[in-house]
């Protein structure tokens, strides 16, 4: 039986383990941390249980399909509920709109902001559907040659939908320059670590997928999916080992033959898959003499995604009027994004994502309490901000905003608090430059064929899974990456 070693128990590593074990390979997963999950981890303390990273679950079909591939039905194991509205958007002037998946309600919200604009909303979503259809042709496939990009129908759609244009600019044109609606229907590129001012209009396919195909919440939080994947993996015979940081991938005569752990122990295998950040894997786990295609200088030139500052608050009161998911857009939204992506400075007035999962799932907090998760996108660690100074400033700014939009007395009601900084991403999971959502930004030249491939070019037997390879960042994408690497390994190694 072929032996597979997977470095890292992130969602992609776990999904690949399940699929490969199901195909008859003997899989061992080696995770650095005491707990699996990687970026999709959890904090459990003082009766609060909060997802550390992802909270927005779209493209649920990718989760369904992952389970179907191993003969399971995810809906029989985890209770999902659809969130509708998907988000409440708070603007700096105190106004807000709700973004619903229910199209009639969404149209009413849009009309509230700009009367007569509903017709344009439906045109925007129609174009989003076309982008989604052709975009998916480049998502769920392995790439070997640049000619794999040649697809005459997709090329035509690319032109018809002007997907090569600038995202913010194109959305603004759809909504006749209405600033509030443009922000509300373009921020989704941030999920890929891209500013809407820099991203391709193509990425409004995410807005379409989110609104038209729905957003879901698994009871117990996102981590309940990781827990379930772990128990399935154990039942299927996957050997999952925690507290096992890998120090080096052992390479003999151009082939990966095993790994050396930090403890000095060497484990041998026929196939090695890295779920750790791909640029980190190349730079830190593979000696330079074995990687002609990824020398340090080309890894340095890659375009790295942004990071984030997170604040988690346990509150001894309930906020029934809040939405489960919300976003706050700062007054100078553009300056905020430029600080993150261009000048790499601390944003003066951060925009942020505000999540209150206890609206849907009160069991995540003690009775009568709420749990708030606040995520403010930040520059990555190339910015050298000095996080011991920056974090208290940000905390103060975020609490000030919560006083405005949630509760003027919120500070007196905080009974539990934790934070997570860009430096924590680097230290805990070896995230290159402390990147949050994923390491490599998803610009055109780091997508599909141009993103690092899931098979090392100059090392036989070495593969990749997760956000660093194609299709890219986010839970649905890393689940697809597990499908793609499994298909490749089964084809090449059987
Ligand atoms: C704050 C935040 C919010 C997010 N929000 C969303 C969202 O709402 N929706 C969404 O879909 N996605 C979201 N994402 C993105 C999503 O979480 C990630 O893209 C996805 O979880 C990455 O999974 P992965 O399989 O690539 O592995 P990762 O999660 O990157 O895990 C890699 C694993 O490898 C381990 N590792 C590293 N080095 C070693 C080593 N040397 N030896 C052994 N193990 C090692 C790490 O400890 C880690 O467990 C968010 C991410 C963050 C951080």
Note down, in words, how this protein is organized.
With 494 residues, the protein is α/β, with parallel strands linked by helices. The protein has three domains: 3-55 and 221-302 and 442-493, FAD/NAD(P)-binding domain; 81-216, no CATH class; 306-429. It is built from 16 helices and 19 strands. The strands form five sheets. A seven-stranded mixed sheet has the order 7-6-15-16-17-14-18. Strands 9-2-1-13-19 form a five-stranded parallel sheet, covered by helices on one side. Helix 1 runs parallel beside helix 16 and helix 2 packs parallel to helix 16 (475-493). Bound molecules: flavin-adenine dinucleotide (FAD). Flavin-adenine dinucleotide is lined by residues 7-13, 30-33, 38-40, 53-56, 245-246, 275-276, 308, 310, 375, 429-430, 436-438, 466-467, 473-475, 478.
């Amino acid at each position: 039986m072929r032996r597979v070693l997977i470095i890292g128990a992130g969602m992609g590593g776990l999904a690949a383990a399940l699929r490969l074990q199901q195909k008859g390979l003997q899989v061992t997963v080696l995770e650095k941390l005491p707990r699996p999950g990687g970026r999709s981890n959890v904090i459990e303390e003082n009766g609060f249980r909060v997802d550390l990273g992802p909270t927005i679950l779209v493209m649920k079909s990718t989760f369904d399909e992952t389970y179907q591939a191993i003969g399971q039905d995810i809906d029989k194991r985890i209770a999902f509920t659809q969130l509708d509205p998907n988000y409440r958007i708070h603007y700096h002037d105190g106004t807000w709109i709700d973004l619903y998946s229910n199209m009639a309600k969404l149209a009413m919200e849009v009309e509230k902001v700009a009367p007569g604009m509903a017709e344009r909303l439906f045109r925007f979503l129609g174009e989003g559907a076309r982008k989604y259809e052709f975009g998916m042709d480049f998502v769920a496939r392995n790439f070997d040659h640049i000619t794999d990009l040649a697809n005459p129908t997709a090329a035509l759609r690319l032109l018809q939908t002007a997907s090569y244009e600038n995202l913010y600019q194109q959305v603004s044109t759809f909504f006749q320059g209405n600033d509030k609606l443009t922000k509300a229907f373009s921020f989704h590129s941030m999920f890929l670590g891209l500013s809407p001012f820099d991203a391709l209009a193509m990425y409004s396919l995410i807005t379409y997928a989110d609104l038209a195909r729905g957003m879901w919440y698994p009871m117990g939080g996102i981590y309940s999916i990781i827990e379930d994947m772990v128990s399935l993996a154990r039942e299927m015979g996957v050997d999952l080992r925690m507290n096992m940081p890998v120090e080096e991938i052992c390479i003999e005569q151009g082939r990966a033959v095993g790994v050396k752990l930090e403890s000095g122990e060497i484990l041998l295998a026929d196939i090695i898959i890295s779920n750790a950040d791909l640029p980190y894997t190349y730079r830190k786990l593979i000696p330079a003499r074995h990687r002609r295609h990824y020398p340090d200088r080309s890894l340095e030139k890659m375009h790295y995604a942004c990071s984030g500052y997170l604040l988690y608050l346990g509150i001894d009161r309930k906020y029934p009027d809040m939405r489960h998911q919300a976003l706050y857009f700062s007054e100078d939204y553009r300056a905020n994004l430029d600080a993150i992506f261009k000048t790499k400075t601390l944003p003066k007035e951060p925009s942020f994502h505000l999540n209150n999962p206890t609206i849907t799932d009160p069991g995540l907090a003690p009775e009568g309490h709420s749990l708030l998760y606040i995520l403010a996108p930040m520059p990555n660690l190339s910015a050298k901000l000095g996080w011991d100074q920056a974090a208290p400033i940000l905390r103060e700014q975020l609490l000030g905003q919560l006083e405005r939009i949630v509760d003027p007395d919120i500070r007196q009601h905080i009974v539990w608090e934790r934070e997570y900084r860009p430096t924590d991403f680097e230290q805990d999971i070896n995230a290159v430059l402390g990147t949050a959502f994923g390491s490599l930004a998803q610009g055109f030249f780091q997508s599909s064929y141009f993103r690092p491939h899931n098979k090392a070019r100059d090392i036989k037997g070495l593969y990749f899974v997760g956000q660093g390879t194609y299709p890219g960042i986010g839970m649905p994408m890393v689940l697809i990456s597990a499908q793609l690497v499994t298909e490749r390994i089964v084809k090449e190694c059987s």
